[in-house]
Amino acid sequence: MTSSIERIGWGIAFLLLAALGIPWFLWGSDRVVAGLPVWIWWHVGWMVLTAAVFWLFAQRSWGLWIESDAAVGDAEASAAGATAADDRGGDRP
Question: What's this model's pTM, rounded to 2 decimal places?
Fold first, then answer.
């Protein structure tokens, strides 16, 4: 179950990832580092950061804004019940 603050935090994180994905502030810059333009380094670093944020989101809050908290709780309860039935040997009494 996620709180309202966590929902807002993920929303802000995704907005920042989208807004800063294009380095507007580096347009027109001709600086070069290690033989490549700085904006390419920005892009590579940004993609690594984005991958890490999406990994964290998938581990922690997958289904946010898609499933209601009640549906998530029901699905977790069903999964736990299925696991318990498997431990007892399936549907045998």
Answer: 0.61
Nearest to 70 by CA among 80, 59, 78: 78
Q: Among residues 47, 29, 46, which one has the least CA distance to residue 38?
A: 29
Q: Phi and psi dihedrals of 41, rounded to 5?
A: -60, -40
Among 69, 60, 47, 71, smallest CA distance to 9 is for 60
Q: DSSP for 3-28, please give it.
A: -HHHHHHHHHHHHHHHHTSS-GGGTT
Do 39 and 26 meet the contact criterion of CB atoms below 8 Å apart? yes
* DSSP 8-state class, residue 33: E
pLDDT tens series, the chain, 93 aa: 567 888 899 899 999 999 988 888 888 888 999 999 998 999 999 999 999 999 998 888 787 777 665 555 555 566 666 555 555 665 555
